[in-house]
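Project outcomes to date are best conveyed with an example. Our students and postdoctoral researchers have been running inverse folding experiments weekly, and each run begins with a structure described purely in C-alpha cells. The record below, which covers 225 residues, was selected by the lab manager from last quarter's runs and is presented without edits.
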C-alpha cells in the first residue's frame, strides 16, 4: 500500500508524525525538482534518512528544509540500515530551532514553539502573555485577550494555592472548558504561554513536543532556546 501527494514543510512534518503514531514500517520518498531523499520508519521511529549523499540526522534536517515538491509513502518497506536513534520529536525540534535562528528576536521567541506545535497540526493556536494578562504575541487564536485573562487568573490562583500549601510554582496546567478545546498553560521564561490543543491522539504528541521545548517541569523561554 502506498500514498502519494504534494507537500510543503508543515505537510511533511505532519506525514512524519502520522507514520510514527501508527508505529508502522514505512519508506517515505520526498522530491523537490532534482533534489530527492528518503526517510525510513520502524516501530514509531525514524530510523534512517538519506538526502543528497548525506545519511542520518544531517540528512533528516536537510529533508525537513525542503520547501515543496512531492512525496510517496510506501508501507512495509524495511530500512536498509539504522542511522538514527534519537526520538522523532527531538529531531523535529532541533530542525525547527535551526530554522528559527534567522528569526530569533522576532515574534517574541514563539517561532520554535509554533513550529513544534502548530505546524505539525498538534495545536490550534498560541498566545504569549505577561503575568498581568497583557498579550505580548499570539498566533492563530480568534480571541487572544480572553485567553490571556484566563491565564492571568489561573496564575494568580495557582500562586496563592502554591504558597498556602508550599507546592511551589505552577509548571503546567491543562484546562478543559465545557464549550471548547483543551487549553494548556505553562511558564515561558518570565512570561506565560497558552496553547489551544487539538484533541485525540495528537495530545500525546503535543505533550512530548512541549516537554522538548518547555522542559518536562516548566518553560525555558525564548532567551534560552
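After processing, the design step wrote out the following sequence:
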Amino acid at each position: 500500500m502506498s500514498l502519494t501527494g504534494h507537500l510543503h514543510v508543515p505537510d511533511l512534518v505532519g506525514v512524519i508524525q502520522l507514520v510514527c503514531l501508527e508505529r508502522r514500517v514505512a519508506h517515505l520518498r520526498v522530491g523537490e525538482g532534482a533534489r530527492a531523499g528518503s526517510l525510513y520508519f520502524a516501530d514509531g521511529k525514524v530510523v534512517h534518512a538519506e538526502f543528497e549523499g548525506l545519511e542520518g540526522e544531517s540528512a533528516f534536517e536537510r529533508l525537513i528544509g525542503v520547501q515543496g515538491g512531492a512525496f510517496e509513502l510506501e508501507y512495509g518497506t524495511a530500512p536498509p540500515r539504522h542511522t538514527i536513534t534519537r526520538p522523532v520529536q527531538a529531531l523535529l525540534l532541533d530542525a525547527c530551532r535551526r530554522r528559527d535562528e534567522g528569526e530569533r528576536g522576532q515574534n517574541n521567541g514563539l517561532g520554535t514553539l509554533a513550529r513544534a506545535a502548530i505546524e505539525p497540526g498538534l495545536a490550534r493556536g498560541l498566545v504569549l502573555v505577561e503575568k498581568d494578562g497583557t498579550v505580548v504575541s499570539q498566533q492563530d487564536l480568534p480571541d487572544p485577550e480572553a485567553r490571556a485573562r484566563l491565564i492571568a487568573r489561573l496564575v494568580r490562583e495557582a500562586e496563592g494555592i502554591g504558597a498556602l500549601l508550599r507546592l511551589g510554582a505552577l509548571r503546567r496546567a491543562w484546562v478543559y472548558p465545557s464549550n471548547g478545546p483543551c487549553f494548556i498553560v505553562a511558564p515561558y521564561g518570565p512570561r506565560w504561554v497558552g496553547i489551544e490543543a487539538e484533541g485525540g491522539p495528537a495530545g500525546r504528541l503535543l505533550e512530548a513536543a512541549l516537554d522538548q521545548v518547555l522542559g518536562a517541569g516548566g518553560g525555558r523561554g525564548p532567551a534560552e532556546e
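The longest strand covers residues 35-42. The radius of gyration is 19 Å. The training component of this project remains on track.
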